[in-house]
Structure formats: structure tokens, C-alpha cells
Fold this protein.
Amino acid sequence: MIAANAGTDDLRTVMASAVSIATESASPDDPSFFEVRMSDVARLRSDLLLNEHLIAEYLAQVAPVPFSSEFSFGTEIDAELKKRLRLSRLAVTVNGKPITRPHQDELLTGSDKASRIREIEFFELADVDGDVGAIGWLGHHDYVRSLPANLGVRGLRARVGDLQVGESNLFEDSYKETRFNSWTIGEIHMLDRRIVPNARRDNFEANHHYSNVLVQIGPVAAKISQRCRQASVSRTALQVVENLIRQIEDRLKKKPRIERAELSRLKAATVRATAKAGKIEDEQDHKRSLARLAKVQKKLSSLTPRRGPATVAVSEIASLVAKFVTNRAQAEKLIAEIRRLSD
């Protein structure tokens, strides 16, 4: 910043006294480049523009820099994008450290568990003429919860010429539940030149072509939301199954002879757990749960219970009747008769 001039010099004179220009010769064979150097810039308190860490984070998300070598899907994404657009990745450094995109295979989620990107899904959006107006990719992970903002990857984002437009919440309104945008990892590269960033580059100019793309983003957001819900159902099922197995294992460790009624209830619990395990999406978790259930069921089958009625709770029977008897009226009659006999 230039101090106020108390004299009578005009602006040209003031600028000339504060700025120096040097010209360096270059060979025609030298590669083209553009370089800016700022020296001895005074840093003010809380000056974010000179915060190297924040500048590096911003450039990693916005600039056309390469993917990190720690992101194993980067090559696959680049190969797919190059089919539709020209990628000109820049070598950008901050204080000598190369800047790369923030995506990684392992995503920290604020807990002991790490959510991992497991697959990449590509999609295309048509322009008003029926041609490809945009191409996008989604990084499907474990959808454990909302991704922390400091990862720099959350949200469905937009890019033009491989430069980001807007923030991570640009397409938030395309979700019926906006919270699922923060569960999302993905980008949409606009190919239609009629979709133009506004002057601030925080959004696009409102026109028919941009509205056409927004309409098509809705179903994409809906599929992501469905994945989030399915992942939640799967985690709940896994927790229920693990708890049931743990309860049965704890009971079997107590050793005392088991009553016939209790043994029946435990066996019924393993049947419920087996049905619940069908909702576990992760293949390894599913196989592990079924193996543990089979082991528990084998132990229960080998037990010789103490004498007594082999009863099962009426609620257990009612649950099974409601599940397997398709005729609702017949199921209700059967449950009522069972209740009458148990009274």
C-alpha cells in the first residue's frame, strides 16, 4: 500500500517512484511461461492472502493441478476426462512444495474409522441439443457420515477448463436433503460453452443451458442420497447382528445348564440375526457375520437343555407369522389363536 502523498505529484509520478520494471531477454526456443514475483510485501494481522497454508489449500481445490500420487483413481479419472476435454495440468508450488489435488484413497472422518474411496462412477449430462454438455465423476466411499470440510474434497463441485467454479455447496439445492451434499465426493466438468461462469466465478450465469444441467443433476443427487441411506441401513444391521452374537456368546460362557425355553429364544435370535445379516452390504462384514452366526448356532444345537416346556415368546411367533404368512387376515387370525392358547 502506498502512503498518502502530501505533495503535488500526479498518480503517474507516485507509481513510478514505487514500481520498478526490468526486462530479461529470452530465446524463441524457450518454453512460454508467465511469472509473478512479489517481494517485501508487508503482512497485516490476520492477512489470509499471505497465509501459505490457506493459499496452498485453496489452489489444491481450485487450480488445474494434478492428482496426488496417493489417490489411486487419479489416472482413471484423467483418462476418462481426456476423452471429452483438454487437460492442461499446471506445476504449482508454494514455498517450494508442489501443490496437488486433495483427494486420497483413505478419508479421515473424525473417528477411529477411516472411510475409503472404493470406486469411481462416471456420468454424462446432455445439453439442450442432445450432445454431451457436461461430464462428471463420483467417488463412492463407505458413506459413514458427512465428510469434514478440512479434507477439501466434500461436495459435488463444478469445473470449467479444469478450474473450479463456486464452492463445495454449489449444487446443494439439488439434493432433497441438503446434508447429503457433504457426504458426496465428485465433480462436474462443464463442456457446453453456453454455460458461463459469472463475473465472481461463485456460480454460473442464469440461463436456459445452465437450468438444463441443474435439472439433470437432481437424479444424480438422488442416487447419492440413496447410497447414503443404504449405507446407514447396512451399518445398523451389522451392529444389530454383532450385538445379538455377543449376547449369545456371553450367555454361553456362563456355563450353567440352560432352560429349554431360554434355548428356544436364543435359537430364535440367531434366526432373526441371519435375516438381518442379509442387509449388510460389505461383503467381508457379511461373510464374517454369517460365519460367527453359524458357529453360535452349532454350539446351541449341541446343548442339552434342562427339562421344561420348549416355549418361544408369543412375540417371536407373531413376528414369524407376520413375515411368512402373506394373507394379512389369516396371519391376524393365527396370531390371535396362538395368544389365546398361551393365556
About this structure: DSSP finds eight helices and nine strands in the chain.
